[in-house]
Design goal:
The complex is a heterodimer of chains A (301) and B (359). Chain A is of the alpha/beta class and 301 residues long. Chain A folds into two domains: 258 residues, Rossmann fold; 36 residues, no CATH class. Helices cover 37% and strands 24% of the residues of chain A. In chain A, a hairpin with a 4-residue loop joins strand 1 and strand 2. The radius of gyration of chain A is 22 Å and the shape is globular. With 359 residues, chain B is of the alpha/beta class. Chain B has one domain: Rossmann fold (3-Layer(aba) Sandwich), CATH 3.40.50. Helices cover 33% and strands 23% of the residues of chain B. In chain B, a hairpin with a 2-residue loop joins strand 1 and strand 2. In chain B, helix 7 runs parallel beside helix 8. Classes of the chains: A alpha/beta (301), B alpha/beta (359). Chains A and B meet through helix 7, helix 8, helix 9, helix 10 and helix 11 of A and helix 8, helix 9, helix 10 and helix 11 of B.
Amino acid sequence: MSDLLAVDGVTKSYAFGGLFGRGVFKAVDNVSFTLETGRPEIFTIVGESGSGKTTLARMILNLIAPTSGTIRFRGTDLGAIRGARARMDFMRHVQPIFQNPFEVFNPLRKVDHYLFMTARRFAGASKTAEIEAHADAALKKVGLSLAEVKDRFPHELSGGQLQRTAIARALIPGPSLLVADEPVSMVDASLRMSIVNLFKTLRDDLRVSIIYITHDLATAYYISDRIIIMQKGVVVESGPARQVLDNPQHPYSILLKNSVLSPETIGEGILGLAHHSGEGPPANSAEGRAFTRTLAQPRSS
Amino acid sequence: MAKANGKAVNIPVAADPVLSVRNLRAYYQMQYFGIVREVRAVDDITLHVNRNEIYGIAGESSCGKTSLIKTIAAANRPPLNVIGGSVKYSFLDRDIFRMSEDELSRVRWKHLSYIMQGSMNVLNPVRRIRKSFIDFAFRHINRPEREFFDIVAQHLERLRLSPSVLKAYPHELSGGMRQRVTIALATICRPEFIIADEPTTALDVVVQKDVLSTIREVQQEMRSSILFVTHDMTVHANMADRLGIMYAGRLVEEAPTRDIFANPLHPYTAHLIQSLPRIGDLSPKKALPGAPPNLSDPPAGCRFHPRCPLAMDICRRENPALTSLGPGHRVACFAASSEVRPVAETREAANPKVAEARP
C-alpha cells in the first residue's frame, strides 16, 4: 500500500552573498517522514521561528521545490506534477490553512467569494444553488452556516469565525491532507480551543490528515498523534506526541518544553525570579524585599 | 470604597497607588448622516495599580483592552472620547485629562512609557537604533551626548544586550532582540509607570520567556509599576501580581493572580482558566459558545449573559456592580454571591452628565 505523503530526505537551501563571500543557508536539512493512507492523524511540526517549519510546509504544498530529496503524495513525486490539470488535481487533495486569517482574505472582497470560487473550481459545481450548497455544507462542518458568512467582508467577522471560514474553504474540495501553518497563533486564547477541537473532529469524522505547524507545545500536546521537533532546519526529535513531550530527550526539546509557561507555575520562579508569588506586590512585605533580585546578580539558571 | 477596605487587609500600601482610575468611560462616538453611533469600549472601569506591581489585564480581542490603555495614557484620539471618570497618577499633580499636550509630552517616556506589541512599529526602520534612542530619550535625560550614550550603553548591558546594537538597523536584529531594544527604550528614563501592550504575542516560546523575564527584572530593579495587557492567561499567571479580567468593555473580576487561578468567581474567568491546554493534560477543553458582543449594541444587563452557563433572570435585566468579596478580590457577577448588587443601586452620586449619556 502506498503512503499518503512520503517526505524523503528533503533539503532546501538558499544561496546568499555576492561578489565577496558566498554562503549556503539550509532552511530545511534532510527531513524525512511519512503519513499513512488509511490512518488519518494530526502530525505536528514544532520549532522556534526560523527553524524551517514554514519552508517545509511550502514544499509539501508544492509552492516551492526542494533542493534535494523527494516528496511523494500518494506515490506521485511532486516535482513530476506538470500542467494545470495535474496541479489542480493535487490541490484538490492537499489544501493549506494559513496563520493570519485577516491577511488571507482580501479586505475589499466578500468572504463568500473565496468559498464560491473554490466550489466552482474544485467541486465541479456550476449552478449558483449548487455552489451555495457546497459552501454551506463545508461551513456546517466547521460550525458555521452560509447565512452567517454570506455577503460579509472580512472585517465584519471575528478572528475565530474567519479562521473557521478559511478551514471551510479548504474542506470544499474534499481534501485528504490539510497543511495548517500556525493556524491558532493569531487567534485569541478563548477561541483557540474551538479551532483546535475542530481539527480533532476533522480527523475523527472526516478522516482528514492534518499537518499542524506550531510553536505552541500545549496545543500540540492536546491534539497531535505524532510530532517532530525542528531546530535550524534539522529534525532533532520525533515520535508519538505524548511520549516526546512528556519525556523529551534532545537538549533543544527540553529547552522548548521548559520555556512553555504554564498556569501551574505561579510562584515557582520560572522566569528566574524566585520571589514572584502572584499574591500582590512582594516589596510591600519585609521578606518580599529580601527576595527581590537585582540585575547585578547573575541569573541562577 | 469597598475595594480599599478589602485590600487593606492584605497590602498596607494600597492607599498609595501609582495609578488610580475611577469610573472611566470612553466611547467611540461617530456621526454619519445625523445618526450617532456609540461604541462603549471602556465602560465604567475603576482600578488601582500600586507601586512596584505588575497589574495584568486579560480579555479577548475587541473587549476594549487597547482602548483602555490608550485612554489611561491620554493618547486617545477622536472618535475615541473620554465621557467621564478620572485617571490620576501619583507623579502628576492633577488628572491626566486636565493636562495640556505640552505638559503631557514632558511626562511621557520620562514617567509614563510604553512597550508595544510590534517592535517594528516602535523602531524607525530607516534609522539606526542609536538614533531611536536620541529621538525618544535624549531630551528627557538632558545630558551631553557622550554622557547620554554612556547611560544607554550601561542600560543595554543590564538588559543583556551588547551596546553594538546601537549601530544596527532594526531589520538586522532578531525579533527577540528588537523587543528587548524596545524594552530598553521604554525603561531608559526609569519611568514610574510602564504600559505593556501584548509585548510577547508575536514571539515564539523560547524568546517569549526571555523577554518576559527581562521585563520582570527591569521592573524589579527600578521598582516601577507595569500595566501588562495580553490575552494569554499563561503569561499572566507567570507575570502579573494582580489580574483584572475584562469582558466587553467592563472589568468583570479582579484579584491577586494566585487567587484568581485558584478560585475564579466569574464564569468567564473560570472558562478562560479551564480551557487552557497544558502539557500532561488530555481532558477535553471546551470553547466558549457564541461570539463577543457588539459593543455598539451591547446586550442589556450583564454583558456576558448570552454566553453564560449560569445566567439567571436578573442577569438579563441588571448590570452587576464590581463587588469586593474577599481580600482584594472583586467580581461583577450575580451568580457569584448574593452580595453582588446591580450597578443602579450601588451608584450613590453619579455624575448627572454621565447618567444622561446612558439610555
